[in-house]
Amino acid sequence: MRSYQRYTIFGLIGLLAVTAVLAAVRFGGGWHVAATVMTLLFLVGLYDLAQRRHAILRNYPVIGHLRFLFENFRPEIRQYMIEGDQDEVPFSREARALVYQRAKGVEDKRPFGTIENVYGSGYSWLTHSATPVKNDNADFRVMVGGPACRQPYSASLYNISAMSFGALSGNAILALSRGAKMAGFAQDSGEGGISRYHREGGGDLIYQIASGYFGCRNDDGSFSPERFAEQAADPRIRMIEVKLSQGAKPGHGGMLPAAKISPEIAEARGIPMGVDCISPPAHGTFSTPMGLMKFIQQLRELSDGKPVGFKLCIGHRREFLSMVKAMLKTGIRPDFIVIDGAEGGTGAAPIEFVNRVGMPMLEGLTFVHNALRGAGIRDEIRIGAAGKIISAFDIARALALGADWCNSGRGFMFAIGCIQAQACHTNKCPVGIATQDPLRQRALDVADKSERVARFHRNTMHALGEIAGAAGLRNPSDFMPYHFMFRHKDNEFRDGNEAYPYLPEGFLLSGDEIPELADWYGRWDRASAETFSPPEIPHGPFTRRG
């Protein structure tokens, strides 16, 4: 379906309006009613095209009102526990509603208590204090940058996750960037490079470098130190992030077909027109834990001391412990590590990767936090968390389990109007976000949506201050696992210290083995700073080839 064909109904209404008016002039009678109705519908369509509040109506004049009509008449009491999926559908619906309310600045209160099933396993809650406090300042921040960093960055506790120009439209990127500038937080560029829309928006940027080295590559696709240094000199780039994997499709590369590469995408990525753009599954610049640390050090030097870290979804835990050993052996520390959960989003990925590959965020975050504690270097490295983090409660829980700040893609997508049409990979996004179609993305009004981005961030930070105050805390960074409870079974719950405990500082290096942590010691012994490959295991009765 061609992009302009969605205006067919509107055009037909205009034609019918003209016909009805002519018939009314000539024949009179009932044609006057038809002419009035069709003219009013045509005027509604003209207003839809001109208004800037609703992208759906700008892209689908007249017929777009059907969506809002159906929303108004949907049942107010919903069936949450549906067969086959007891979490995903209600989470998406209610989370989107929460973001819309906060982004638009409308009332987000709700009568009649909780909307979730408090008796099901997996439910978690905050333990509040009998002496709550009032937090007036909601500008919560954390300083990112270790001893080797010369340009540390004061980051908000809530920032925009990696979403590339190319996956998102120019208007979407621009709205996000402007909103980030208004509210004083950062936007991750995604692996697609820094586009002119990122720069025009003026917000703080986290420059992500993935296996395609977009924006800092040679003609053969290899890493270019010179082009990276030129990019990193931009004062709007505050941090550098090496992407090892992302939650929605860890271990999976990608390809942007030549037909979808526009001149603007080619400029941002530093790739030629007319050639398929390949993102390999793995980096070509390094292949060992030691190599990763040396690459981080190289990027830090080339960026004149800006914070450099890496992002990954946890897979083989031994491999992450190998990275930790490389940190100890080389003395090189990343300034930060971002943990993406398997529940993270993407524009397109094989269903098996979306559902069954990678570790969920809470488990991955806890593992990385404790691995760094075990090696005695947790205080030197900041941890970011990403993966369905939308509400203030989501942020608070992640902070309690070891994160220093959080990123969200889904939340800020909702803020600029995403309705989860799941058409991201078709170039037919109905609200102009995940498309390069100039007509479709015209529906996204940058001025209106950037205000919503800033408002969503401010209101969420305000809510975070309130939820911290309810726990008796002045700063959300003071959350600890014991501030939360987790329902383990229908009739059983556990304290956060039991469900996600902080393990002892230096336990991997002390030599005094704790029996309950035998699995940690075995995995640590198998890890190597020199290689990601597993150690040789002799063939025997319990091996695959035994």
User: Proportion of β residues?
Assistant: 5-15%
CATH class of the largest domain: Alpha Beta
Instruction: Report the mean per-residue pLDDT as an integer.
Output: 87
What is the number of helices?
Answer: 19
Number of domains: 2
The count of DSSP E runs of length 2 or more, i.e. the number of strands, is: 15
Ranges with pLDDT <50 over ≥5 residues? Answer: 74-91
Instruction: Give me the CATH superfamily of the largest domain.
Output: Aldolase class I
Largest sheet: 8 strands, parallel
Strand order of the largest sheet: 4-13-12-11-10-7-6-5
Examine the coordinates and then state which fold CATH places here, giving the name of the CATH topology of the largest domain.
TIM Barrel
Describe, in plain words, how this protein is organized in 3D:
The protein has 546 residues and is an alpha/beta fold. The protein has helices spanning 8-27, 31-50, 55-59, 65-73, 88-104, 170-183, 196-201, 225-232, 263-269, 289-302, 317-330, 351-356, 361-374, 392-400, 410-415, 438-441, 446-470, 496-499, 518-526; strands at 124-126, 141-144, 153-156, 158-160, 186-188, 204-209, 237-243, 254-256, 277-279, 308-312, 336-340, 382-386, 405-408, 484-489, 492-495. It has an eight-stranded parallel beta sheet with strand order 4-13-12-11-10-7-6-5. Strands 1-14-15 form a three-stranded antiparallel beta sheet. α11 links the parallel β10 (308-312) and β11 (336-340). The longest helix is centred in the last third of the chain and has 25 residues, at 446-470.
